[in-house]
Amino acid sequence: MDKPDPPLRKRSPEDRRSWWLQASAASAGQTSFFQGSGADLELADLLVENAVGWMPVPLGVASGLIVNGKSYEVPLATEEPSVVAAVSFAASVAARSGGFTAGAADPVMRAQVFLEGAFSDAETRLEAHRSSLEAEARAHLASMESRGGGFRRLSLARLDLGIDVVVVRIDVDVRDAMGANLLNTLAEALSPSFEKALGGKKLMAILSNDASLRPAWAEVTLVVEAERARRIALASAVAMHDPQRAVTHNKGIMNGVAALALATANDTRALEAAIHSFASASGVYRGLSRWTAEGEVLKGRIDLPLALATVGGSVGLHPTARMALQLLGNPDSRRFCSLAAALGLAQNFSALNALTGDGIQKGHMALHGRRAAWQEKNP
Known about the structure:
Blueprint (H helix, E strand, L loop, with lengths): L12 H11 L4 H8 L5 H7 L11 E9 L2 E8 L5 H13 L5 E4 L3 E9 L5 H19 L1 H4 L4 E11 L3 E10 L6 H19 L2 E8 L6 E9 L2 H16 L1 H21 L4 H12 L9 E6 L2 E9 L7 H5 L1 H9 L5 H23 L5 H17 L2
Antiparallel strand pairs: 1-2, 3-8, 4-6, 4-7, 5-6, 8-10, 9-10
Helix pairs in contact: 2-12, 4-13, 5-7, 8-9, 9-10, 9-13
């Protein structure tokens, strides 16, 4: 019988790199970029203005995260120590109970057109012109509709600003794309028709990065020592009632989610903005996860809006981002968002488990010692 391969944490960096190239089914071009010779200014100049080079971020892999019955090796790009180890630890605990269950809504995003000085009966006029306006929107979205996405809803709201400003909202299923360029182009293209039908003049036309129309969720049931379960559940309750604790609670969740987004060249700024807005939806900033305990049974759930793409934009341009998605089996957007939600809950469990146990500094300081030793040798 063949001897099983050692876990990644016990392999040398060189061996882990060889594993990555094989597991991600890297092409020759991706391999060249990943190993350094392909990281040139030509691609940098496509990704950012005034490009001068690259700022590499460490890329690690968290092992054995089971989501909906499938085991994933999860790529994480982060400069923070213990993030990869925390996910791997939570994954190993969850695996004993079958792993995480997760899901995500259809990837619907919203474009907004703000009109200043619209007619006082703009709401009535929208209904009168709805058929023609929706038909125009569908015409602009023909390519997306052919892929199962496209136009979903058209609505209007009047803003309480003391002057006449209305916002026309166009909801679009963007499929596997993040959809920013599509939605911005659509909003600008429809603006003249909105002005004509509803009155007023365009103030702005742009997508909203609020992703509350496409929530993702994850759940897990764990068996841990009863007192530990009780303390984790209590710590979760604290984050629902103390906004200052909730900020750090949610930051810990985002340690994993943002690292996955960065590894796949997704927009981390839009992601963070949407999630923290969602956490404040009640009027009080709250924790994104909830844990309950019954004896040794600890149950966790997380709900968060996720606008993560698997095609288009930088996701399609960056060779290492493509390798990361290949490692994950080239998921569609909904499966990818489900995985990200489970990842956030896993990260959260590890953080709360450490905080309510020996504290987080024990592990952090061990890693800090390794860094300090390296800095002494490399001043």
